[in-house]
Amino acid sequence: MRRIELVDGMRGACLVFMTFTHMIFADGHPLMSLHFGKLGFVSSAEVFILLSGFLVGAIGLRLHRRSGPAVVRRRQWMRAGFLFACNTGMLLAILLAASAWPRAAEIWGAYLGHLADPTPPGVASAVALLYQPSYMDILPLYMLFLALSPIAVHWAAHGRLHWLMGLSVALWLATQTGLAAPLASALSLIVGPQIELRTGFHPLGWQLVYFAGLALGALVADGRADLARVYPADDHRLLWLAAAVCGIAFLWLEAIVLGFVDEKTLERLHWLQSRYVYSPLYVVNAAAFGYLVIWLATLPGRPSASRVAAPLRLLGRVLRAGLTWAPLRLAGRHALPVFCFHVLLAYVVVVVDQTIGPFADATEIAILLACLASMLGVAALSEARDRRSAERRPATAAMRGPGVRA
Predict the structure, then answer these.
(1) Is the separation of the CB atoms in 70 and 76 below 8 Å?
(2) Among candidates 2, 32, 1, 39, which has minimal Cα distance to 17?
């Protein structure tokens, strides 16, 4: 399947925005205000998970039909295994650094929790993905979804996407209403009191994002998603509805930030705006925000684009040019190794800031740009490795002779 430049660019953009929020300085930094999360209840995490699900659905469905379910299963499980190895490697590297330098363990205390003073059961729970340090909680979530993806792709290949999404919505609703709470209690009983559970994302809430992306990717790969009807250039009703939803979410977030909403009201509405379980406000805001971005980014080149107001056409061209910028696409193509590297950078940067900082704004920006450049270097190395592997495969097949699969 040909790569979709816009999807690669959006994944790369998510990594940039994650870098802005994960590189912590004592007095903040100027680039933090550029994150689109300031516009409402939406973040890089759900965009990244949605796009990952989209790619698994689009590529997995075609692979399923061409080579069968066993190939899809092997591919996704190998991917999950690779991520587990990366996650374990990052964890051990950080714990070794913390044990070798007590000052680092002190600085990382909030990030590591009880792992700042590790015990064998604590390390075992972290390796088993039950206790997740800061910034390392999205990978276990993605591993779980990858492990379940072959079943979802199999259902999609047999026309059962409605079953998949029905089950996904039911699990999400169970999480919102508290019906899924006994599962967490049961897991705590199974692992015992010595093992503490810690994660930034409730799997049963966030699975809705991933499997919605997977279903969309499968529909696109199957030719059943008529994007011209979903994002019509000559009918702006859905566009303005999405804009209104985003505007209301922005005003509500600003009211909370500025202190116009009292604590009791926030407590009563916690069920509506809990990021941990991916509550309804996040779902609605993300859907509206995503609609706006895709509508604008896909506007250039459409036959009916000439009937759209000039400011919207200009905004669409600027947005598409930004999201398809070559460095962003490169980072997006190799999002997983780049993400892992950015986690290590986040731990290094906070130590640097608290040992030789604070820094001036210009220095903080220079450090962030250096981090982004090094992440791009990791993407370039990964691209070169993939290219060498692709060049070796035909040569290996030719050496083995016809009829023998490499």
Answers:
(1) no
(2) 32
Helix (H, G, I), strand (E, B) or coil at 170: helix
Q: What whole-number distance in Å separates Cα of residue 391 and Cα of residue 400?
A: 15
Residues 75-90: b if buried by 16+ CB within 10 A, e if exposed: bbeebbeebbebbeeb
Q: Report the candidate in 332, 361, 315, 380 with the shortest Cα–Cα distance to residue 15.
A: 332
pLDDT digits over 297-344, tens only?
A: 888 776 666 667 778 888 888 999 999 999 999 999 999 999 999 999
Per residue in 98-111, pLDDT (tens digit) is: 888 878 888 898 88
* In the block, residue with structure tokens 């691209």: 383
Q: Please give the Cα distance from 277 to 272 (Å, whole number).
A: 10
Render 263-299 in DSSP notation, one character per residue.
Answer: HHHHHHTGGGS-TTTT-HHHHHHHHHHHHHHHHHHT-
The residues facing 131 across adjacent strands are 198
CA 220 from chain center: how many Å?
20
Whether the Cβ atoms of residue 184 and residue 95 lie closer than 8 Å to each other = no
Residues near 325 by beta carbon (within 8 Å), at least 6 away in sequence: 9
Q: What is the identity of the amino acid at 62? A: R
